C-alpha cells in the first residue's frame, strides 16, 4: 500500500488543465498574467494560457526538490526572475504541478506580494499538509505522484555540467 502512487498521464493532464481552467472561469477571476513555477508549472501555465485566452505568460525558476523525497532546506528562486515592475497592478495566476509542502508556492506568493493587484494559485495536485491552500486544484492526494514528464529518466545526463 505504501508503494501506491498517483499516476498522471498526458491524457489526464489535458483533462486536468481544462478542469482547472473551468474552475477559474466559474470563480470570475480574470488573470492578466499566468506565472509558471518552472519546471513543473510550465505545462499547466501554457494550457491555462490558451484555455483562458491569456497571452502574457512568464516563469520563475524555484529549486526545492533535488530528487525523489529529497529537497533543499528552503526553496530558492533562481535568476532570471521577472522584474517586479512587470507585475505591477496585474492579476496573476501562479501555476505549479503540485503543492506538496507548499513552500515553493509560498516563496512565489511572497515575491508577488505588494506588486500585483491580486495573485491566485493553481495546481494539478495538492497534498493535505501543504502550507499554502491553492485556489484552484484538480486533485488532492497524499501519495507520491508520477508525472508523465518526469517518470522516465532524462535522455542525457547533465549532472557533469552542474557539478563543474
UniProtKB/TrEMBL annotation:
GO MF term (any one): glycosyltransferase activity
Key words of the record: Glycosyltransferase, Transferase
Domain called Phosphoribosyltransferase: residue spans: 7-152
CDD domains referenced in this protein's UniProt entry, alphabetically: PRTases_typeI
Signal peptide positions on this chain: none
Domain of life: Bacteria
PANTHER family reported for this sequence: HYPOXANTHINE PHOSPHORIBOSYLTRANSFERASE, HYPOXANTHINE-GUANINE PHOSPHORIBOSYLTRANSFERASE
Protein name per UniProt: Phosphoribosyltransferase
Originating species: Nocardioides fonticola
Amino acid at each position: 500500500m505504501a508503494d501506491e502512487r498517483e499516476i498522471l498521464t498526458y491524457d489526464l493532464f489535458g483533462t486536468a488543465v481544462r478542469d482547472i481552467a473551468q474552475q477559474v472561469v466559474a470563480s470570475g477571476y480574470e488573470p492578466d498574467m499566468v506565472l509558471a513555477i518552472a519546471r513543473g508549472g510550465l505545462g499547466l501555465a501554457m494550457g491555462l494560457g490558451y484555455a483562458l485566452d491569456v497571452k502574457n505568460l512568464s516563469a520563475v525558476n524555484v529549486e526545492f526538490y533535488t530528487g525523489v523525497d529529497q529537497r533543499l532546506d528552503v526553496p530558492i528562486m533562481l535568476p532570471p526572475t521577472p522584474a517586479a515592475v512587470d507585475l505591477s497592478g496585474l492579476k496573476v495566476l501562479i501555476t505549479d504541478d503540485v503543492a506538496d509542502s507548499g513552500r515553493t508556492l509560498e516563496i512565489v506568493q511572497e515575491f508577488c506580494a505588494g506588486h500585483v493587484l491580486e495573485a491566485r494559485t493553481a495546481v494539478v495536485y495538492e497534498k493535505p499538509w501543504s502550507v499554502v491552500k491553492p485556489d484552484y486544484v484538480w486533485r488532492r492526494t497524499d501519495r507520491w505522484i508520477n508525472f508523465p514528464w518526469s517518470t522516465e529518466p532524462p535522455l542525457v545526463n547533465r549532472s557533469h555540467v552542474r557539478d563543474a
